[in-house]
Design goal:
118 residues, alpha+beta, single chain
Amino acid sequence: MKKFVGIAVISLAVTACASHTGIVQMGQDTYMIAKQQATGFPGLGNMKAEIIGEASRHCVGLGKELQIVSTQETQPPYILGNYPRSEIQFMCLAAGDRELQRPKLQKTPDTVIEVRKP
């Protein structure tokens, strides 16, 4: 019995660290969703596909189409709190909307250099 309780406590502790924002509205027709694993063992795997599917179902529920605006993922090594995390920003647009087009996704820069003239 003690062994079972120990395993249950460890399982609860590990799963308690995982996070999922759900769908968060950022503006008119614009949303974001993020999900993070509790440990580094699973890797990114299907996590990004899962949140894209959730975003798509949300847009379909609104009678609109999904347009992904940006994506971000953590990079290995997955240790010391840097666990697999994926985030997407997306829009739910009407079928004829001009912004509904082939996505041109670009990685968000890690560093931005701004040149100012005096």
